[in-house]
Amino acid sequence: MLKIDNYHSLTTEEKQRQQVYIHEVFGDVPFIQQRQWAQPDFVFAFRQDDDLFSFFNLIIRDVIFDRKRTKIAGVSNAVTPKNYRGKGYASQLLTQASPVIFNQLKVEHALLLCSNDLTDFYQHLGWYKVDSKVQFEQRNGIEHYQSNTLLLSPNTPVNPESIDLNGLPW
Prior knowledge:
Acyl_CoA_acyltransferase, transferase, GNAT_dom
């Protein structure tokens, strides 16, 4: 049921379908609509035939934790379509994806920019909130992220003072 695809290998139809679901969840959020976002490297999904139960996008990037280059997996657009919500698909997907992210993609941490209403959900899955000053690039220069930043670490949790996403946010 867990499928991992290179984002660039998705068909136009698959990308458009994802965008419809993403827009249903995040389409009315001004912060999201007013910014430029990085293109994903991978899509992790629970799907079978034409049924897409839950998915998230992943970006692999070297970011800067307190002036130290750190390879991370940036999780974005975690979405479960309305007709599949409340059945545990997102929790299962994120849990099953973790070993792949850390063991196969060889990242040091996973990083998620998170709204207040979803923080508890991710913390229940082992993510933890950090009080880091987060910055990212936009067309008009550097911006700072003012909401929740969550990390998932396979070993010892870290709490860097600053995180430079080293590019566009995800």
